[in-house]
């Protein structure tokens, strides 16, 4: 991509009402822009990061037999009344509207109910199970105060996976597979080292749910972490009996701030029973389906990466989720010889399908290009200038030292 | 994909209130399911078709310098008031709701206003133009009567592209490029031969807009078509002066039914002026940006393909948009030798990244597998049975005759 024509160039300032680091850096870097409090537009650079995250998650969820669907935003109140969750006193983040016919309609904030109802059309026998269904879908949540940038938005894309099993044992076995898939996802997204499985409240139906908490000074949550065992307890269930239950020692637990980047729940029969999702087992008896749900908010994940991976100059994207791998800075482009070299390197990388952003702007100083590159945070900065001649200077975003390579050496390294 | 575990197996009957052929076939085939009138869930098979269409459109729009973004569903009323389109008497398909704070909020039915406003943050100089911005985004339209299945839905994914140019001449030049991109899209989607550019009303700001109309007996629109010149006139502007203007002869025009699969408009300064999207030109004067908009509804495109490409047995997907390329039917799978052969062919195709659906069900008759395959409409049906021995039978969905190949010949053909 040519930076000169890209929609979403860097900005010196973020909007004054954005106090969170993630929104400030993402807006200044040209990744997102604000539509209103809690609703962010993905600009071309931000959409590239979103697609990288989506693909990582898709691969890991498909590896545990997930099948992808796409549910609707418009929601039928009758489905939600069956579980009691149409009531604003039970679910307090509904956006509701009216059909032109005058009937009520909901805008999706989650999808347990409609997916459970959908499955009643397809599940009759034990042979129809298990099923693991996921989607990447927009959720609308009417938060009273949207805050913390993309960490707590009113509109966000979520990967939500739901498991449908024949028994609690089967649910438990899949739940362990999902845990491993979640570790893989956070590892591949570059935040695995700082992300810990955390015991949290299980609500009315399970003793615990599990959160994935990424330790970060700016986090809203407080967790008690055993770093060695890589297990944490959320403050909400930090009680002596829980600590003992989990075989942890209070003296090894460290109080730290963290951001919840994922959560997984055993729903058991909470939704299948009121919605009539049952199956006929091998012995001819009718049984309820055992369910689990497994969520990751993609904007929140992106924001967490930014909160964790930055310095005073800007973002430092982990390689797997960066919008591009290389950021070529062409300096002294008014010199036709330099311009030709930089253009050629860019063209060669493109031909080799290497992901590359090329700052080809003519009317911008070297200093501005350097600081834009640091703000945007692409893993490898490549400088081509009058000074570099037939060579070029390559530097990793998170390292201080640069290296001089010939253009041929670089092209070989880049795999083009 | 193993058909035995797929969510969304075929159904004998569509819901009684679905009178359109597209919804009947897509629901019976397991491609979509109905959430409510005008809102359809994409099941795994349907999502595969949607992704194929998305990728074709993305490639063609990127080829004319389109940059992809993702706007929000939540809409700020203030933006829409500036163009007068917040008013329900002007736009009669709004879904509106309230923020928890009590303020009004809109749910997006289109994106001219928010995108134009977004661009005011990035466009100042003639150097910032042109820009061609597109997205694949969910639209919510509060139609009084949702009808015709996926052809006129209340919720649907649209590819909307908007062009931003310095002058009317530049807009006109891009408009011609977009026309060619649209031809390419419909050709690749398999309906190019039946799709005609059609002159339609341009509203208040242009003489004409252009629709892409696919001729089809079940179409809602009436067009007057010159088959030789591949040009049509929509009934709404079928007047003597228009016919003359376009250099057409009334005697060569044939009245036919058609489905609108795309439309393109010159918006000129309709949105840039009220929203203040201007730029400073080379001569220092401030000028309004010239805009165009270019839409394709993806569900409608899928539905049009189904309305056009079917026979009494089911869907006949064009190869480029089919959910899978091959549909292996394993018959006599209770014979371990046959099962091993079929399993091996499937595994070999998977290893070669060939798109394949494998009907591995044990408890289903050969007749049922054949009729399911015809209903689902995958281009190549591959039968492996006791009778076929070390060979297999391959048949194209739209041809009567089958061919016998050795397993090796088939694997070579499939590229695995």
From TrEMBL, chains A, B:
Q: Which GO terms describe its biological process?
A: prolyl-tRNA aminoacylation
Q: What cellular-component terms does GO give this entry?
A: cytosol
Say yes or no: keyword Lipid metabolism present.
no
Report the Pfam families cross-referenced here: HGTP_anticodon, tRNA-synt_2b
- Swiss-Prot/TrEMBL catalytic activity: tRNA(Pro) + L-proline + ATP = L-prolyl-tRNA(Pro) + AMP + diphosphate
Alphabetic keyword roster? Aminoacyl-tRNA synthetase, ATP-binding, Ligase, Nucleotide-binding, Protein biosynthesis
Q: Which Gene3D superfamilies match?
A: Anticodon-binding domain, Bira Bifunctional Protein, Domain 2
Q: Which domain of life is it from?
A: Bacteria
The molecular function terms in GO held by this entry are: ATP binding; proline-tRNA ligase activity
The EC number(s) attached to this protein equal 6.1.1.15
By its UniProt entry, which InterPro entries does this protein fall under? aa-tRNA-synt_IIb, aa-tRNA-synth_II, aa-tRNA-synth_II/BPL/LPL, Anticodon-bd, Anticodon-bd_dom_sf, Pro-tRNA-ligase_IIa, Pro-tRNA_synthetase, ProRS_anticodon_short
What protein is this chain from? Proline--tRNA ligase
